[in-house]
Amino acid sequence: MAGFKISTNKRETRRLAWWLLSAFFFFYLLCSGGHISTPDGTIMFRVTRSLAKEGRLDIRQLEMWRGFGGMETIDPATGEKHFYSKYGIGASLAAVPFYWIGEALLPLSGQNERDVFDQNQWRKKYKTDTDTPRTVKLRNLFYDPRRENFDEAFLSFVTSWSNALLIAGTIVGLFMIATCLGYSVNAALALALLAGLASPLWHYSKTFFSEPLACLALVWSVYFTVVGARVNAPRRAWIWAGMLLGVVVLTKIALIVLVLPVGILILTYAIHKPRWEACIRIAFFGIAFAAVVGMIGVYNSIRFGTLMETGYGTEVNAWQTPFAEGLSGLLFSSGRGLLVYCPLLILSAIAFPRFAKRQPALGYSWRSGCVYSLSSTRAGTCGKADGAGDRGFSCLLCQSFSCRSLSFWSHLLATTLVASPYSY
After folding, report:
1. Among candidates 316, 320, 321, 339, which has minimal Cα distance to 402?
2. DSSP state for residue 80 in the 8-state scheme
3. How many whole angstroms separate alpha carbon 246 and alpha carbon 259?
4. 120 located within any domain
5. Do the domain assignments include residue 50?
6. Are 337 and 386 in contact (CB under 8 A)?
7. Domain interval for residue 132
8. b/e map of 310-331 (b: 16 or more CB within 10 Å)?
9. Residue 418 per-residue DSSP state
10. DSSP 392
11. Domain end among 138, 159, 180
12. Do residues 150 and 117 lie in contact, with contact meaning Cβ atoms separated by under 8 Å?
């Protein structure tokens, strides 16, 4: 990249951002797997379908795992039982447009294509004449993908495209943060390519988890926070920052731990503005955040009749894995180890001191997230995973830095990889 020069005016930067969005979105679509392969994703898809078709929140339970992923309640007026997802509504709501796209495309599929999602058909094709299966492993799904249920299989596939777009938007957000901070377009493009092709973001584009939306919202919240810190920046920038941070929590309630580092970033920028103006902007940020987060209470009331019940029940108190065991699993396990699946974090750690010197506000924000997560941890919840306890580190640290959530990790990537040899 040494001799590679790109125009850095605002119009060219935005044009590059649109090209990045399109390129990564279609690239991730080509890499999509064709199914929603997890029970979590299947539950959230059913919420999307219920919202898109009937405007309802209750769903049908998983036939293969009844009771998973939610709670059953009884309507006091009618006595009917309703099953509600325990997951945040954000990802399901964001996927509704793609469900409608799937409904529009569904009539275009022919009869010869109705077996394409049927795994039993593929299993038959991967057997030898002696009926001995070859070394091909196909996951069992939590919905029926056979010809008779083609509509649901097709709609779940198209609905899952939403995460490809969300991850592509996250990469664009990282690119825009880098250029907004004053780094060269070369550095911003290097960051975008590394994030999109050499990190777990690629994997999450193929899933139907809630993390991609939380990741997108957090990255763009940081972007609007940085934009709002400029001299004469419009107040609406921090309103957008507050709303997007609220979307993070609306998507996954455990990610409320990210409010502290982003809040510190806002305060660090605010102290450089006139006192009255700083108070107004912080108030706008807080009101916007509270307005979005307030939707969680409404969502809880509709589902469970109370503001505080999220559907997770006693799971929130089940943190029992020892700290050291969980930390080693988080970093080195074969299933979700950060340093195994994202060695770029090592590069980020090396680059961070240089970045923090150039961007002290973001440096304080990242450090506060680390210190708060480490000091506030309780031993982890989900026990051992892959023999290493990687999901049992702690609620706060896992939700902030694990590959499973990605959100704050993407902030780390955005704020450190830009301090590369191509930064100037």
Report:
1. 339
2. -
3. 9
4. yes
5. yes
6. no
7. 36-159
8. bbeeeeeebbebebebbbbbbb
9. T
10. G
11. 159
12. yes
Q: Are 172 and 21 in contact (CB under 8 A)?
A: yes
Q: Which of 112, 140, 159 is the last residue of a domain?
A: 159
- Which pair of structure tokens corresponds to residue 314? 């006693």
Helices (H), 58-95: 90-94
Query: 85: part of which helix (H) or strand (E)?
Result: strand 81-85
Cβ neighbourhood burial of 389 (10 Å; 0-12, 13-18, 19+): buried
pTM beyond 0.90, yes or no: no
Residue 299 within a domain: no
Cα–Cα dist 69/141, whole Å: 15
d(CA 243, CA 223): 13
Domain count, the chain: 2
What confidence tens digit (pLDDT) does each residue in 249-301 have? 999 888 887 888 888 889 999 998 889 999 999 999 999 999 999 999 888 88
Residues recorded for the chain: 424
Question: Is residue 49 in some structural domain?
Answer: yes
- Amino acid, single-letter form, for residue 408: F
Whole-number Å distance between alpha carbons of 153 and 157: 6
Average pLDDT over residues 22-28: 95
